[in-house]
Specification:
By secondary structure, the protein is an all-alpha fold. The chain folds into two domains: about 60 residues, Winged helix-like DNA-binding domain superfamily/Winged helix DNA-binding domain (Arc Repressor Mutant, subunit A, Orthogonal Bundle), CATH 1.10.10; about 130 residues, Four Helix Bundle (Hemerythrin (Met), subunit A) (Up-down Bundle), CATH 1.20.120.530. About 70% of the residues lie in helices and about 0% in strands. The protein contains ten helices and two strands. It has a two-stranded antiparallel sheet with strand order 1-2. It starts with 9 loop residues before the first helix and ends with a helix. This is DNA-binding GntR family transcriptional regulator. Keywords: DNA-binding, Transcription, Transcription regulation.
Amino acid sequence: MSIPLRPISAVQALADSVRGRVLSGEIPPGTALPEQELSAAYGVARPTVREALALLVHEGLLRRERNRSAYVPEVSPADLADLMYVRRPLEDLMAQALAGRRVAPADEALARMAGLPADAPWALVVAEHMALHEALIVAVGSPRLERLYGALAAETRLGLVRLRRVYEDREVLVAEHRELLDTIARGPVEAAREAVQAHLDHTWGED
């Protein structure tokens, strides 16, 4: 028996478009997104815009304050430093748990990243980058670790927008992540831990 698929809603389509523009850096941090302007630009009703923005606010990609339009939050160097302060111990737990193991979903995310066309939007690179790291966290098998890591996802994705300038050659990003996955898979534990911390320090310390 075939199960019919529902076509994507206007709300979801609008949220997908705005999300992609934010994560590609087309809509830069600090930009306000008035409902009326989005309604006119996309040719959709304001209630549709309102729902789409609410979805992105819930994801943490946009913020909304009382009597203000939704806007793209700034992620400052201090924000990134604090983000890494919290991420490092979580990633260290991952390294200890996965040393000596191959994580197929992470390899698959890396293959998808490597297979993106040269002109692919940066948002697609961000999506696969997130999928790779989230696959490693999920492979640990700790629901609490997943929840803690998931709470940082929105800020991490916004931070990755800044890395577009660092990784203009995507092959460098792919190579670094391939080495990371290979080192974790080889082990031992201390080598995996050192590789994860060095990866975070290098990737997020460049900007």
